[in-house]
Design goal:
This protein is α/β, with parallel strands linked by helices. The protein has 2 domains: 128 residues, Enolase-like, domain 1, CATH 3.30.390.10; 221 residues, Enolase-like C-terminal domain (TIM Barrel). It has 14 helices and 15 strands. The strands form 4 sheets. A 7-stranded parallel β-sheet has the order 5-6-7-8-9-10-11. A 4-stranded antiparallel β-sheet has the order 3-2-1-15. Helix 1 packs across helix 3 and helix 9 runs parallel beside helix 11.
């Protein structure tokens, strides 16, 4: 299909309450939104690098500039029929995975709409149900945390993830494990530790966690491999996985037993599918995570979470949990807590709501191919 028109937007969407991790606190999530038009159809793609270079080296502003100045000119007016073809066209642009991801997702949405298939079927999903867990950040008290866990597990969520950082560590985990001895729990360290913290990290084995997510710095693959040799709890890599190549290297050196795939950080659906296949080939568990995307992006995460080798409940937070207003409609539906059911309409089946799109757009640029 010929890419006839391209629109690129920077989005800043306020959230209901500050979101606290080891990187700090944020009051809004920033993303870039791309639309591609061809043959009367429109595909939408979102990627959420954030407003600062904390979760990755990129921001919504840098991604917008790369998308505007380098990616759009390379693909406008071109015939593109697959994610692999788009990857080939963008191969000369180093890094900038979030910018690439927004275009890649928009292309997959466009292709699925053209084929009259829901996105999850177009990418090879094994069903229309995505299993999800529940994440707790740093709260005001242990009592608040315990009450929250009791509520979500009673409602049906199969596992919980706990943010783990200095000041919210072993004591917190001991309190939770004592209250919920059989619950599937894993912790997310967001790169807060080093091998100098080995004694603390070794203590985690006694809590029988499903995994420790990203305990060390994002660029410490060798140290993660060393840590995995010295603890029994599985390590899950998150921030370290920024490409198919990083995933391959991590698997090769034994740096992880699980990988959290975030489509925005690895370059889109095409790269996420390649990492999923790589995990399957090597017996590595995988699951999907989000980065504060709106309902457009969370639907992409849910579609990827239906893939056959996704063997752990994914992180898919409904947009209404975080955002004051939804950017896109319709939102993900759920029959019961712990699952999301994807609809059978063609493509992503989510489009931006015009008023929200206008209100949340910080910058925009539009391109049209000559006739």
């Amino acid at each position: 299909m010929k890419i006839e028109r391209i629109s690129i937007r920077r989005i800043c969407n306020p959230i209901n309450r500050p979101y606290v991790t080891a990187f700090g606190s944020q009051s809004a999530f920033n993303s870039i939104l791309v639309s591609l038009e061809s043959g009367g159809l429109t595909g939408w793609g979102e990627a959420a690098p954030g407003g600062g270079p904390f979760f990755s080296p990129y921001t919504d502003e840098t991604s917008f500039c790369i998308a505007r100045d380098f990616i759009a000119p390379r693909i406008l007016g071109r015939e593109i029929s697959s994610g692999a073809e788009l990857q080939e066209l963008l191969q000369g642009i180093r890094g900038n995975e979030f910018a690439k991801a927004a275009f890649d997702v928009a292309l997959w949405d466009l292709l699925a709409r053209q084929d009259q298939l829901p996105l999850y079927r177009r990418i090879g999903g094994s069903g229309n149900v995505a299993r999800v867990g529940y994440t707790f950040g740093v709260l005001n008290s242990y009592d608040e945390l315990l009450a929250g866990i009791e509520k979500v597990t009673a409602s049906g969520y199969p596992r919980v993830k706990l943010k783990f950082c200095p000041g919210w560590e072993l004591e917190m985990l001991a309190v939770v494990r004592a209250a919920f001895p059989a619950l599937t729990i894993h912790i997310d360290c967001n790169s807060a530790y080093t091998l100098a913290d080995l004694p603390l990290l070794q203590e985690l084995d006694r809590f029988h966690l499903a995994m420790i997510e990203q305990p060390l710095r994002h660029n410490d693959l060798l140290d993660h491999a060393e840590l995995q040799r010295r603890i029994t709890t599985p390590i899950c890599l998150d921030e370290s996985i920024t490409s198919v190549q990083e995933a391959e290297q991590a698997i090769r050196i034994g740096a992880a037993r699980f990988i959290n795939i975030k489509y925005g950080r690895v370059g889109g659906i095409t790269a996420a599918l390649q990492i999923h296949a790589l995990c399957g080939e090597h017996g590595i568990g995988c699951w999907l995570g989000g980065m504060g995307e709106s309902s457009l992006g969370t639907t992409v995460v849910a579609a990827l979470a239906t893939l056959p080798n996704v063997n752990y409940p994914s992180d898919i937070s409904p947009a209404e949990k975080f955002y004051v207003r939804n950017l896109g409609t319709p939102v993900l539906s759920t029959d019961r807590p712990g699952t999301y059911t994807l609809r059978e309409e063609p493509g992503l089946d989510v489009v931006p709501e015009p008023d929200a799109l206008r209100d949340f757009t910080v910058a925009a640029v539009h391109f049209e191919a000559p006739c």
